[in-house]
Write a structure and sequence with these properties.
Blueprint: H1 2-38, H2 43-59, H3 66-71, H4 80-104, H5 110-132, H6 140-143, H7 146-178, H8 187-209, E1 219-220, E2 226-227, H9 228-234, H10 236-257, H11 262-303, H12 323-339, H13 342-354, H14 367-386, H15 389-398, H16 402-409, H17 419-438, H18 445-459, H19 468-535, H20 547-578, H21 581-603, H22 605-611, H23 618-649, H24 657-683, H25 686-694, H26 696-716, H27 721-756
Antiparallel strand pairs: 1-2
């Protein structure tokens, strides 16, 4: 039986690796988004700086391991056989939960996850012990470190409010004084901002880094016999002032003599610092429990006592974390940072919510988001009414960025926000996290960085009237996910620890198998989705301001739309022929993506027209007509696919063989025609376009023949009403789809002739 505990320790070590991978995939957003969103420095440079920060932070994180050992429960109240089951349940739950959120692309808190899994497993194990002994549930306070647990939880919740408020205030004043033309300000202004930002970041690095090294406890004559640790804690004002003066001088020199953009320096330094904070603050979330389990096992083996008799009071004492473990963990985190694709998915969520430009909104508005936006509009209107008109006008001028937004709108590589906001994000988040770290509180880096980013977005007027309800809904969804994390972590870890307590090794094996199966399924689904996205040819927004340029860009979009429509129609035909719901579901997903892409193009019409030169206004009419026709095509296909999916999903009667043949003939006929059409578009051939259009009546008549044939079947053959209705809808909409495609070609032909004439 004793061998089972060694096996469990080995399993926990493997789970630690998995937890590092899923944890970093989710938390990478915390320190990468500001640099990536601003696109101030090359992506590879960002990754190198972040990697160095993660590696450095991992080496200074041993102090916070105490949270996993005794921060949530009183280890002396549990025996070794109980504590090892608690740790096993915690790791199984944590890795499953984080992978779930990664798959959704939602940022969650690894700190909250580990705290509530520990709490849930400890509470459920305590209940089991109470039932087996005294039966007095009031004794549960003896098992749980309620004071520390409440302190941790309240600190986490407080971080949401503090981060949002501080981020908004700092960004508002920064923008007010520096505006969107901050790079054109006087040299001393940029140097002043650089001095404040860099001194704040480096002070944090000193507090987070040096305090965790052996050098911090050595007395130095140069410091008057004072320790570095004591200097940092006791002489805060002097250290901060000296730090600022040094960095103000460095910033001025860098700007004046090296001609370097100080804002890029701040973003690079801030990325390093925040990555360091992440590793230092959150490493405990991934390896703290396995290390505590390993140290518990060592203590138990050394004692020679039975597992059920060995009290885990040993965990109450401070035990240094082996440096080797920290180095290995840091290496895994760095590799994950470079290789994880799920990290990009999570990152996109936050970037979309803080984007300065008009983008395709990911989240749909809900009742609460509408109420919140409306309430703040009323408050804002009331506040504005109290402000003098001149003051209000001057403030609006400082926040004016219309030209920048218009310029970026048609640039797919445009930054989500400017460097000033990126700097504020990094500086504020670093300071807040450093404060928590210095007090050994596992403040959620996710909560802090996310809410700071949302606060700066709000203050920077990124949430305009047209986007506010969507952005607020997104924030509410993310926060709702955080509460879900806490509740789920608590309940699931409690259930798992109960099952493995009652079921023994067999239960552990079964649960582990199920979790690995779920994670494997999520991985395959994620990889499949990525492959599908790569295969899809995305539509591009028009950037030209001439009729010829717009036609060339529209030609590319039309070819892509025709190809994707043909692909969906082929899936539709096969799905109906086989009565296969999964194929029709795939077709439904593809047409939804195409519809979203087309909608995004239509939403860009405003910026397209605004960027047109006065002499090229005819291009706008052409662009709008083409988009309208493309919209009609996608609407027709969407109707067919959804009706077909509903028919098969409800298990209505299959299409008859004759209907299947007719449908396949229609697809083959129209496909061959439009292959010629796409060739005509690609070669800009008037003759081939005319040839396709000359066959209009022939194709239409054949489609009408199929419709008439179905009418005859309905009159003379026994057929299902649902079957007949569906097939008539498919035939009629297929005809409309074909005619709309012809209209696209006619529009192109007319404008080509106009240009040539």
């Amino acid at each position: 039986m004793d061998n089972i505990y060694l096996i469990l320790v080995a399993v926990l070590a493997i789970l630690a690796v998995g937890d590092l991978i899923v944890g970093v995939s989710n938390d990478a957003v915390n320190f990468l988004n500001s640099a990536v969103g601003s696109k101030a420095i090359p992506f590879k440079t960002i990754m190198i700086l972040a990697s160095l920060g993660v590696a450095a932070g991992a080496l200074f994180s041993s102090g916070l391991m105490e949270v996993a050992r005794k921060g949530i429960f009183n280890p002396g109240e549990f025996y070794f056989d109980e504590i090892i089951l608690i740790f096993t349940a915690v790791m199984l739950t944590d890795i499953l939960l984080l992978d779930f959120f990664n798959t959704l692309g939602m940022p969650t808190s690894t700190t909250v996850s580990i705290v509530f899994t520990l709490l849930g497993a400890a509470v459920f194990m305590s209940v089991i012990k109470i039932i087996e002994t005294t039966g007095d549930f009031g004794d549960i306070v003896n098992y749980i470190n309620t004071t520390k647990a409440i302190q941790i939880i309240s600190g986490i919740l407080l971080s949401v409010v503090v981060a949002l408020t501080v981020g908004a205030i700092v960004q508002w004043f920064s923008r007010l004084f520096l505006t969107y033309e901050f790079e054109k300000k006087a040299m001393w202004v940029s140097a002043l901002f650089g001095g404040i930002a860099l001194s704040a970041i480096t002070y944090f690095i000193l507090m987070k880094g040096i305090k965790g090294t052996p050098f911090a406890n050595i007395k130095y004559d140069i410091l008057g016999g004072m320790k570095i640790k004591d200097l940092l804690e006791q002489e805060v004002f002097k250290v901060a002032l000296a730090n600022f003066l040094v960095w103000f001088g460095v910033s001025f020199s860098v700007i004046r003599f090296l001609k370097v953009n100080i804002y890029k320096v701040i973003i690079g330094t801030g990325t390093f610092a925040l990555a360091l904070a992440f590793a230092g603050n959150d490493l405990v979330n991934f390896i703290g429990v396995p290390i505590a389990a390993y140290q518990s096992y060592e203590a138990w083996v050394a004692s020679g006592a039975a597992a059920s008799d060995f009290s885990m009071g040993v965990l109450s004492s401070k035990v240094p974390t082996p440096t080797l473990f920290l180095i290995l963990s840091g290496g895994i985190m760095v590799l994950t940072l470079w290789l994880s694709t799920k990290a990009k998915k999570v990152m996109k969520t936050e970037l979309d919510l803080s984007d300065q430009n008009s983008i395709k909104e990911r989240f749909q508005p809900n009742f609460l988001s509408k109420v919140i936006v409306k309430t703040f509009q009323i408050i804002g209107n009331g506040f504005n009414a109290l402000l003098p008109a001149t003051l209000k006008k001057n403030i609006d001028i400082q926040f004016a960025n219309t030209e920048l937004v218009l310029k970026n709108q048609n640039d797919k590589n445009a930054p989500s926000f400017d460097m000033l906001r990126a700097c504020v994000n990094l500086v504020v988040a670093s300071i807040l996290i450093s404060i928590a770290t210095s007090y050994k509180l596992p403040l959620s880096t996710t909560y802090v960085t996310f809410m700071v980013a949302m606060g700066t977005s709000l203050a920077d007027r990124a949430w305009q009237r047209d986007s506010a309800v969507y952005r607020v809904a997104g924030v509410l969804n993310v926060i709702g996910g955080w509460f879900l994390t806490a509740f789920t972590a608590f309940v699931v870890s409690g259930i798992i620890v109960t099952l493995i307590k009652l079921g023994g090794p067999q239960a552990i094996a079964i649960i582990l198998f199920i979790i690995l199966l779920i994670i494997g399924k999520n991985y395959l689904k994620h990889r499949s989705e990525n492959a599908e996205l790569i295969d899809l040819e995305g539509l591009v927004k028009s950037e030209s301001n001439s009729i010829k340029g717009v036609m060339d860009e529209s030609t590319k979009n039309v070819i892509k739309v025709f190809k994707r429509v043909d692909k969906v129609y082929a899936i539709l035909s096969e799905g109906l022929a086989k009565h296969d719901k999964s194929l029709l579901k795939k077709g439904k997903k593809n047409i939804n993506r195409l519809t979203d892409d087309v909608d995004e193009l239509r939403e860009n019409i405003f910026y397209f027209i605004k960027n047109l030169e006065e002499s090229s206004l005819s291009a706008s009419n052409f662009y709008i007509v083409i988009l309208s026709l493309i919209q009609d095509i996608t609407d027709d296909l969407e109707y067919i696919v959804k009706k077909s999916y509903k028919h098969v999903n409800n298990d209505h009667s299959k299409l008859k063989l004759s209907q299947v043949r007719d449908l396949q003939e229609i697809h083959e006929l129209t496909n061959s025609i439009f292959q010629d059409a796409m060739e005509a578009f690609e070669n800009n051939s008037i003759a081939k376009l005319e040839n396709v259009l000359n066959n209009r009546s022939n194709i239409v008549s054949k489609l009408d023949e199929k419709i008439n044939a179905q009418i005859e079947r309905t009159r003379n053959e026994e057929t299902s009403p649902k079957n007949a209705t569906l097939y008539f809808n498919i035939l009629l909409k297929s005809k409309d789809l074909y005619l709309h495609k012809l209209n696209v070609m006619e529009t192109f032909l007319e404008n080509i002739r106009k240009i040539e004439s």
